[in-house]
Fold:
Amino acid sequence: MHVTARENKKNESKVVFKMSSDENNTNVEKTEEAPPVPEFENPLANLILKKFPSATIAFANTDRTRVNVSKEEIIQTASFIRDELHFDHAESVSGVDYPDEKQIEVVYHLGSYDDPSLSKQILTLATRVPREDNPHPGNDSTKLSSLYEIFPSVAFHERECFEMLGVYFEGNPDNRRLLLPEDWADIPPLRKDFDIKGR
Amino acid sequence: MSAKLPPGLQLEKVDDRIMTLNVGPQHPGSGHMRIIIKVDGDYIVHTDPDPGYVHRGEEKMAEYRNYITNIPHLERPVIHDSCNILYPYCLGIEELLGLEVPERAKYLRVIAAELNRCVYIQYWLAIYGIFLGHSTMFMWPTGDRELLIDLLEKMTGARVTHAYFVPGGIRNDVPPNFEDVCLRQVNYFEKRIKEYADVFYDNPILISRTRDTGVLSREDAIKLGTTGSVLRASGVDFDIRKKEPYDVYDELDFQSPTLKEGDSYARSKIPWLDMLESCRIIREALKKMPKSGSVRVKLKPKPKGGDTEIYRRVESGRGALGMYIVSKGKPQPYRLKISVGSFRNLIAMPHLLTGEKLGNMPAVYWSLNYWPVEADR
Amino acid sequence: MVNDITVSKPKGLSVINQINSHNANVFVGKLGDLLYKAVDTPLGMALNWGRLWSLWPVHIETACCSVEFGAASGPRYDVERFGIIEAFGSLRQCDLVVVQGTITRKMAPRLRLVYDQMPEPKYVIAMGACAITGGLYFDSYNVLPGIDGILPVDVYVPGCPPRPETLIQGCMLLQEKIKRMKAR
Structure:
């Protein structure tokens, strides 16, 4: 469930949702929570939904849009975003651990340097991978195709995500340790079942 | 081979011609990281950066502390540019909690952020000078930045690691005659840094060492996702203060300098031009600042946000600094990810160093505006 | 007559044989002690004076306190007037390790290696709260709680980060300590 903070302040937006959900794109699930999509935002969110109808738009604010895709479709979605929508680099790649749902979410924040109409935009591309209780990083089902061929800027970020959360990126030319010591023998530290001492 | 190696280490076959060098953590030309270089004679054939010597687990620690007690340890990655690291954090939390920052606080935040940017760039220039052997360029910036550190001490109480920005404004107001003192110091500082052109930037030795070395083309700079002065030295005009202005940057009149060549000389000149622009910003902000007013919005004891996520970014001394905050309705953040300019520029290092001569390595490596402590978080 | 035969010894030998040999040993020993004290104490003081006015730290920047160490070498807080010149050459010519800041588990073996490579006499200053007890990062998974476990520390300089004046006071304390040490 994603509720943006902006409409916490405005009370009238709740009323507007119900009326404008008919004129907005009908493919968007969870229309009760999506704010009234501004005119500028419609092209971006709409274009992705037209091409990939199984994707979901979590929110579409003025400068921030979030697209959730399944892990099989991520390569095509990313190529589409690069070629048609002119996003050219990744600002950051992070992983979020959800132990209750047994999934790890990998979030790519994409930005654009070349296109002047998109300089304020950050497109968030998110996908989920299954999570195992006893991780063997690299050898279990927590795998994802790397976006290295499409956005070369994710190389080091994906390495860090691998060692911190155990998500193996297939196609990344280098999947070694980056920040942790060479003899780290514990589970990946950013998982929720890794407790730091004394807490 | 009877002894067992500890896990994570492996043996390599030694080649006759190619030698592996460790530009290691203890090295006059490396800083707090290691670069494993394979050289063939005088030319570098393979580079492998090895960061992580200062990895302190900031992101994991942030999940155990609430939003206010996160501030002291989140500002330590770059201690002399601490205001710029806290900036996206405070902006994000203000958006999360729906706070409205007073005008005077916004202007003071801009002044503190610009002073911090100058302090960082001066230290970076000092280390650049000493890497190239120009020890005057170590002494002059280290001495001149003390002028601005005095100003920051008057504002915040500490030389570095100010912990000055809190969500809702700044911690406390400046002393009474701060505006006059600041104006005088900044004018004198600007006069001093204009002299750097004679000693450093017009120096024929520096020009011959850094011109046309480590050239990063425009397409590569965009494709590799570099940021900050590295990007602007390759001809891409992208400064977050101009493209996505935050606080009062849209009311101030300044430029963000861009150069086209993309070599180490351009990358070493852009921060200096940035500093001159910062002096203009500080002067204008001092004039436009409201003379009195509150500087902080009072917070509840353990503020918590809704079930949402925020991404804010800011232009720091190294480039775009973004914070991704995921909150689930508790006083602690569920996930906090810091995306720093140094880590994003790290990918340009193997790209640029491979093929260079070994003697050009410090000139190219430090010109990428890489601060190892920040990249490791 | 047979009973009248006497044997006469030479004169010099009889004098020496009359001096007691134990007393002679004690006399030579006491003379040696006096000479040793007269020469060794000023020699030791001279060696210590040479050592404490030219402490050369190794160029190893470990974490964020290195910014204040760099500022201490600047023109305002000039630490070179104490002889502390950062020897940018090899570490085989240095005798001081200033551990600046947090030591992580990745850095700890390298720090020990650097310390082992330095020739005697060598001194260690622990600078910053992180080097003393782990500081602000005491509960992180990658940080050592203080360097006492791997290096023998001479002087602790507290602060986060310590001001350059505090660092200079720490160096002066180290100088006091060296003055009182045995020179050999």
Summary: The radius of gyration of chain C is 28 Å. Strands of chain C lie at 96-100, 123-127, 155-157. The helical segments of chain C are 11-18, 21-52, 66-72, 108-117, 129-133, 164-179.
